[in-house]
Amino acid sequence: MSALPTQAPADIPQETYTEVTSLLSRARDALTELSLPESLQLATQACQLLPNACTWTAPLDFLGEVMVENGDLDSARRVFGESVKRNEDGWEKCLWLGQLSEEGGLEALGWFERGAAALTAQLQSLDADATTKDKAKENELRGKLASAWCGCAELYMTDLCMEPEAEERCEAYTARALDAQPGNSEALQTLASMRLSQQRDDDARAALRESVAGWLPEASIEGTGVHRAPGTELRDPPPYPARISLVRLLMESNLLPLSLSVLESLQKEDDQIVDLWYLYGWCYFLQGQRAAENGDEEKKRESWEDARECLEVCGRMYRQLEWDDVGILEHVGELVAVINGEVPPVVGEKEEEGWDEDEGEEWESEDEEMEG
């Protein structure tokens, strides 16, 4: 949420405005402290104080974002839609509606393009006022603009892939993203995804290496084929979900050492994520396969033991968090079965790691319940 003006907008009394901003400030603090229920309650109270015809929509936009964080996407969609009805200005609500669009396709494309247009206008206003130009604000807006164009490009790789000139449009939107902010990690990931779909694997790998070169620490890129100029100032890493997607692209591109480096950065940030341990295990499994192809059976054994350990953590966490991605559950079971068939666990290893002897049977029974 952007900084709030000190004076009330014309269509809201100053006394009401003061109360609303106080609630929003408390709601923002609660969100920062990951107290989602409290943040949701405070943001809802702030919105209930707004006059019906009020065109100041910052409280609605913030409430929508809290609802997204809380996983209530239907309510978030309705709130952002109400925000647009009251006031069409603003790029945040447009980008959210693009991401949350139920229809996807051309509807989502329209929202992303509206958001991009609003961002472009705001950047032009910054350029026009050189005396007060805020470089940090400009970089933030350029990153958001790149993300908006990436959203458009990705639609032409998914929902709109059968549209005439889909490939050309995808190329054009990706180019716009890279033009908005050269070196943007999300834009380079989008470029890599497009190149993979075009079977231009070498170009995809080059884009992925460039993507991580801007933020991955020096110690993490040693031996990965990533190069950057000495003295390069590192940017903040992409959001956690974007890095999870990046790992999948790296694995698809057979950049396994780099995949593990990114996973290590994710583990340091938050190790209570099912997808993290699933991708860790799968990556080590693929590393073991590659070692076997090169005749290195010892490296295969070591990699598959690491894979089993990560997959067992994934399995336990899956049940603890009551995860609902059946595809992960099935694949973990398949990988562990293959590993145990060729690299049997050491006697006592399961008990030491807290591994349930009936783990495989539990996976199978859960799969059967899902299918039933």
Summarize the structure in words.
With 372 residues, the chain is mostly helical. It is 71% helix and 0% strand. The chain is built from 18 helices and no strands. It has helices at residues 14-32, 36-48, 58-69, 73-86, 92-100, 105-128, 135-155, 166-180, 185-197, 201-213, 218-221, 240-252, 256-269, 274-293, 297-320, 326-342, 349-353, 359-371. Helix 12 runs parallel beside helix 14 and helix 14 packs antiparallel against helix 15. The protein is globular and about 75 Å long. Residues 350-372 have low confidence and may be disordered.
List the main descriptive attributes of the protein structure presented here.
mainly alpha; 372 residues; globular; single chain; disordered C terminus; 18 helices
Topology (SSEs and partners):
Blueprint: H1 14-32, H2 36-48, H3 58-69, H4 73-86, H5 92-100, H6 105-128, H7 135-155, H8 166-180, H9 185-197, H10 201-213, H11 218-221, H12 240-252, H13 256-269, H14 274-293, H15 297-320, H16 326-342, H17 349-353, H18 359-371
Helix pairs in contact: 1-2, 2-3, 3-4, 4-5, 5-6, 6-7, 7-8, 7-9, 8-9, 9-10, 12-13, 12-14, 13-14, 14-15, 14-16, 15-16, 16-18
